[in-house]
Specification:
Length: 179
């Protein structure tokens, strides 16, 4: 037979457990924010607070370089990256797109051909998505989803890299590009 004190204690324990579970369930893993990509006149959504970096990369013909900007962050084991650059007028934009995509896929350990998938981004001259499987530097499996978009001389690349990226959040990220 349970005494009122034991029953009251049991109810309190259940209440604490219930509140703890509900708080853990409500804690936001994805904290969406808008990034302004001022040098290309676009904006993108990203699900976490990113860190910024930029560097010159040899992406163009004649080994000339271009300034690549990137903001990236991690949610769990998944990396979300937004990169952008402007291709100089004397360079071929399609060559830049092809080289950038190839370099990104190679860095992610994706082998073989990756077929383009149509991607609708309002106001762009070109937009395609790509998906593949690669390997991390430690040998673990890596799922890769990339969106490449171009408007005039400006290129934007959105990338999701993780063992098991969340499908809904990946889609929201890729659909968050606006020009």
């Amino acid at each position: 037979m349970h005494t009122p004190i034991v029953r009251n204690l049991a109810l309190r324990v259940l209440l604490i457990i219930g509140l703890t579970v509900s708080l853990v369930g409500c804690s936001p893993t994805f904290n969406w924010r808008t990034l302004r990509l001022d040098s290309v006149g676009a904006q993108a959504l990203i699900p976490c607070k990113p860190s910024y970096s930029s560097r010159e990369v040899p992406l163009l013909e004649n080994k000339s370089t271009v300034l690549l900007h990137m903001q990236a962050c991690d949610v769990g084991e998944t990396t979300f990256a937004v990169s952008w650059l402007n291709v100089p007028p004397e360079q071929d934009i399609q060559t830049a797109i092809s080289r950038w995509l190839s370099a990104n896929l190679a860095s992610a350990g994706v082998k073989g051909e990756v077929s383009p998938i149509d991607w609708s981004v309002a106001g762009t001259d070109f937009a395609k998505r790509y998906a593949g499987n690669g390997t991390r530097h430690n040998g673990n499996a890596l799922a890769v989803a990339i969106g490449m978009a171009q408007r005039g001389p400006s290129l934007v690349q959105l990338g999701v890299y993780g063992a098991k990226p969340e499908a809904r959040e990946t889609e929201e990220f890729l659909q968050g590009l606006r020009w």
